[in-house]
């Protein structure tokens, strides 16, 4: 069935090509060249969705990105939220539904490809309407390199939605000829479907090109060979902004009903898409432009019930438009409200209610100065236009045509040519003279009336300034009553201008209404700042090819395949895939971890610790450099030994910990946490390059070069001694925190006596080329000792039992070494190190700071949730009335095989002095008593570490 509101002939759509689509569960048809909005209107659908706060019916209000009501979610072929029906090109198989301001992200990965392009040119012309085409053509003829950008599907701008002629021919014939001429110039890049959404210093433009779901029959969604969208990064010597203007509404009671639309957009739907937007139309205008829609709609068979003109005396020519067609003209009148439900049914004019199914509104035009304003171009208020226009030109940017306040077609063509001539002169290129096409004789114009809203104190809560945000005149008045006089403050208080159209229709209107409320001029009040992006841009487009593993790289150790074969369950740690635990049979994580912990404490276990950050630091001043970074001395470390160290920020708070291995007098290996590796290298380089450039030091990351395998447990000495027979593993020969170099079948291996578990342990370090082979050699040799591979979860339990903190889990950026009970790691010999002075701040010496302690649930069964708050234990065992004073929180919590009970680590106010106290942890409605202990719960004497 043909769409009931489709005209018989008009429009630039391809009527021979029918497209099927579904909206809100209803099967409909449209044509190639339609947008989703034009297809809906052709089918008589105005009610698209409901408003975000009030749930009021909302519909399409404009023909492009300035639309405020046609927000939809694309459901198929792939979910995509927050799309404007006016900018979605209709394609076969499209499924969509209206959304009330908030969409739903897709649950599955986007199959489409996104890309980025870089382009350099002399001139960028933004907008392929009459002004932009004239400017681009003039620049091209003079030999300049030109990039022409336009967001529509085809060039033409305002000519796409009208009947204007140039040199006696249809305006679109001139557009076609001009586009063909530009296409023949190899120095011109013409990008349609491309929105310039950001303009930055030095002639830099960001633009988004849409290449998928096109109504020409191509659909690039999921086609890896063709990017669905591309972000263009464009650098030019000069930018000519020819972006046209947005028609603005007038605010009155119930001005948000479906069926209320901008008059110019109704004309666009008629001439571009062949759609009559209604059957019975009332037109409310303050200026001449709406009369073009009046004449064209009437001549297309639409009944114009009345024209309501706010001016007392519209021009004679405009009056004749109505008189010749028998249309009632009410001059000096205002539409004060509407009636209706899912669609407008009446326009209220004075005491009359005029029946209609569509109300067209035109409150004047706002030049689209966004790109000019984004590079801090100054704006001035034009009293005659009731709009803000550029106050002048910038060195690298000029504005022409309607964007500069010139609304006459002939004037726009001349402005484009003139702007090009000025730019060419600055380049030293003489302009090539050519004739500018001549439009039909312009109709005499009458000055517009500046009407922002129709005052009515009783309906201000239903006078919508920003339809997208349900923000009203009442909200503006409330902001003013709250003492706000800045539009920037008022914008944030009311949320006007913060939705998807970024204030294209509401921004200037809000300034006008606010100025009326305050009693100031609009010029003195100004308008809010225009910021990128001009229109919403998909995050996927901004990411380009940096998606999936290219955005969040997946790093794997050389033993990854072995872990997979062993059934490891992985977790992400600092971009690495690390085995979390190795379940056997039907074990869950708790059972597997208890088994692994018992195996390590009772025999021998092996961990893939290759993800530890490793930084090779070399140079004559390497020791001095590390002394300034760590809280303890590193320059006194002997070759062949290691030392544990802590790094602090300038505020004295712990930022990382790890070990330092001295390889030679001028060379150290710094081991960092897995997650902190990149940050710490950056931190070290920043200090070296900006504060201590005189130090003779150089460093590089070798994290990927070395694989590290801790072999841990009472039987570790036996295993290491057997595999590396030339290494004397006796404790008195190979002490704790020493390292030795050796060979295994010709492969160099470095073994270090380091323990992150409190057990006897050896860390086997080998180059990445041989890592997998050495791992398997250790596994094979360890079978006689029942060697158990263990993962990060077991590692966490083992270290927590020994009170070893994990930076970033047991610390939160507010914890000093002293808070951790690690005064011993802060040197009293060094004159200075990063953070030292902050350690003596009064607050850092406060005994009631949160300090690192252990917790033992009294019931011996409850595993405290990490992050749980800790409070005083009430005498009656009941949670006190709020506010409840919080003493701290649980940082780590596990079940211990060695202790045969759950335990936790925590940060507690004055915790070191509260050891032995009983506190409480609220879990749901229950208060769990916990005993405060020292942080070391297993082998506090350290005997197990030495075997």
Automatic annotation (TrEMBL):
Enzyme Commission (EC) number: 1.5.3.24
Taxonomy, superkingdom: Bacteria
A Pfam family annotated for this UniProt entry: GCV_T
One GO cellular component term noted in the UniProt record for this chain: cytoplasm
Domain Aminomethyltransferase C-terminal: 850-939
Keyword Mitochondrion set for record: no
GO molecular function: nucleotide binding; sarcosine oxidase activity
Keywords recorded for this protein, A-Z: Cytoplasm, NAD, Nucleotide-binding, Oxidoreductase
The UniProt record lists the keyword Lyase: no
InterPro entries cross-referenced by the UniProt entry: 2Fe-2S-bd_N, FAD/NAD-bd_sf, FAD/NAD-binding_dom, GcvT/YgfZ/DmdA, GcvT/YgfZ_C, GcvT_C, GCVT_N, Sarcosine_oxidase_asu
Protein name, UniProt field: Sarcosine oxidase subunit alpha
Species of provenance: Gordonia asplenii
